């Protein structure tokens, strides 16, 4: 007996591919955090939870295909149709849970990497919004119809929310939060005291999150098809396929910034060459860390003038030497000290670990 329908199997094959990729990237990330970086954060635990939701979604996706998703509505036996619709009903909150948990993981990563109070506050605000919105969308997905069984028994008496309005409002909020998450770190990255090439490379890594935004937008077309369809079981594979892709692409993008140490171990020559160039620029930028100038001292009838200049004493400390000595006469004591200091941002040192 053939498993499912051609349309269902095609959608399932893409779900298998992207779920596998998301799993591989998550394993690499967790391996990196445990064995190379030796530090697990809340963002790492969140991505594990997101992957678990994605796998639960995938299991129900298999159920939908098994129960003839992709077949015309009228050609599916009633008992099989009920089973397919139950699987479809259960995938909706799991899709939402996976996507929202992934976004929370990304924001927790931002909070860990960027130490500025403003960035941390912004992250907590958006996490709070996602928690509130997630609670609503999770509950509304489970109780789209009252009683719940009306979702798979349309002839039953009861009430259902407007599915089209519900699905598109959820998609709009996801796209909006995708944009916020994408642009959130850019001002902080732009202002980091890093070599230009390293800073742009870092911005490019974080900008890979735009792929999630692209998949969210592409999913809208399939969502429009099924929301207006008179044959939902036949038209559902497109929406199911793009939902699986969106969930797993989000997980992959969330993992990319955290696997730098693994890539460094895998491709040591490439990254060591890149790092040596970056470190050269960093050392150049760090020269003249502390400058003391115009130091004048006059005691009794003698005036001494020292010019303090910087010398290399350490990568971050204040370094100086005295040169130039002048004598004169004066009845005053005059001391003038002008200090100019440059420091490397804590954000730079934290973010540098990602490259």
From TrEMBL:
Q: Which UniProt keywords apply?
A: Membrane, Transmembrane, Transmembrane helix
Pfam families on file: Fung_rhodopsin
| Chief location bin | membrane
Q: Does the keyword Oxidoreductase apply?
A: no
Q: Where in the cell is it found?
A: Membrane
Which InterPro entries does the record associate with it? Rhodopsin_dom_fungi, SAT4-like
Stretches assigned to the Rhodopsin domain = 28-264
Which ranges does the record mark as transmembrane?
12-32, 44-68, 121-143, 171-189, 201-220, 240-263
Bilayer topology: Multi-pass membrane protein
Q: Which GO terms describe its cellular component?
A: membrane
Key word DNA damage present: no
Q: Do you know which PANTHER family this protein is assigned to?
A: MEMBRANE PROTEIN, PUTATIVE (AFU_ORTHOLOGUE AFUA_6G07820)-RELATED, PTH11-LIKE INTEGRAL MEMBRANE PROTEIN (AFU_ORTHOLOGUE AFUA_5G11245)
According to its UniProt record, which protein family does this protein belong to?
A: Belongs to the SAT4 family.
Report what the protein is called: Rhodopsin domain-containing protein
Q: Which organism is it from?
A: Aspergillus fumigatus (Neosartorya fumigata)
């Amino acid at each position: 007996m053939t498993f499912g329908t051609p349309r269902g199997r095609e959608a399932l094959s893409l779900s298998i591919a992207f779920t596998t990729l998301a799993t591989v990237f998550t394993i690499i990330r967790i391996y990196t955090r445990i064995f190379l970086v030796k530090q697990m954060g809340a963002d790492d635990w969140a991505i594990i939870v997101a992957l678990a939701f994605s796998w639960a979604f995938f299991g129900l996706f298999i159920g939908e295909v098994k129960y003839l998703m992709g077949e015309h509505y009228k050609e599916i036996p009633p008992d099989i149709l009920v089973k397919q619709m139950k699987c479809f009903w259960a995938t909706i909150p799991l899709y939402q849970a996976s996507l929202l948990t992934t976004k929370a993981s990304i924001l927790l990563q931002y909070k860990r990497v960027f130490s500025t109070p403003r960035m941390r506050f912004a992250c907590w605000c958006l996490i709070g919004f996602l928690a509130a919105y997630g609670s609503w969308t999770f509950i509304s997905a489970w109780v789209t119809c009252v009683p719940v069984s009306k979702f798979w028994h349309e002839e039953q008496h009861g009430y259902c929310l407007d599915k089209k309005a519900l699905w598109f409002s959820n998609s709009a909020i996801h796209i909006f939060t995708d944009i916020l998450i994408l642009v959130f770190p850019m001002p902080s990255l732009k202002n980091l005291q890093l070599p230009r090439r390293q800073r742009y490379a870092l911005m490019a890594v974080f900008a890979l999150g735009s792929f999630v935004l692209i998949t969210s937008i592409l999913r809208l077309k399939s969502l429009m098809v099924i929301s207006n369809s008179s044959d939902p079981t036949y038209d559902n594979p497109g929406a199911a396929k793009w939902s699986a892709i969106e969930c797993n692409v989000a997980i992959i993008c969330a993992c990319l910034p955290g696997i730098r140490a693994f890539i460094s171990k895998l491709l040591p020559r490439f990254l060591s060459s890149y790092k040596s160039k970056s470190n050269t620029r960093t050392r150049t930028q760090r020269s003249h860390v502390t400058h003391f100038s115009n130091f004048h001292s006059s005691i009794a009838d003698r005036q001494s003038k020292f010019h303090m200049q910087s010398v290399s004493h350490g990568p971050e400390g204040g370094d100086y030497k005295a040169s130039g000595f002048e004598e004169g006469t004066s009845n005053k004591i005059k001391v003038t000290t002008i200090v100019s200091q440059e420091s490397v941002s804590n954000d730079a040192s934290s973010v540098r670990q990602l490259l």
